[in-house]
Amino acid sequence: MRTIRTISLILLIFLLVGIASASEDVNFFNNTTNITFEGVNFTIPQGFGELKGAQDFDELGSEGKTCFYINEAGGEIQITVISDWMGLNLDELYKDGAQKTKINGHEGWNYTYNNMTYFGYVENDIGVLVGATNQTRLFEVVL
Q1: Which domain of life does the protein's organism represent (predicted)?
Q2: Spatial contact of 66 and 108, defined as CB atoms under 8 Å apart
């Protein structure tokens, strides 16, 4: 039951993605910037800026948040952290068509959905999903 709820949450997060254009409210980074989001460290590449208003998914029965970064060329980065992962392993979260992969020492799975490439992994019992319009960006963002 928990696995089905978590998989449903992941699919819903992917469907909620609709950010495709730069906003005047975004301050773009002049340099590569290290961030900590919900207790997990990431690197945001130069030229990206955060779209304010991280999305909170508490109402879905799982403690999680998503933040979004865009660049002026239409590139996107999404970071979702699910804090109540509760010991689920990657095999329970396998999605058809996903490829098991390792990025910067993290074992996980990745696949493409709606022009975005995603990488999901577990770090210290925290579920992490990173999506980017360019697969190479995953290797830059995931620390």
Answers
A1: Archaea
A2: no
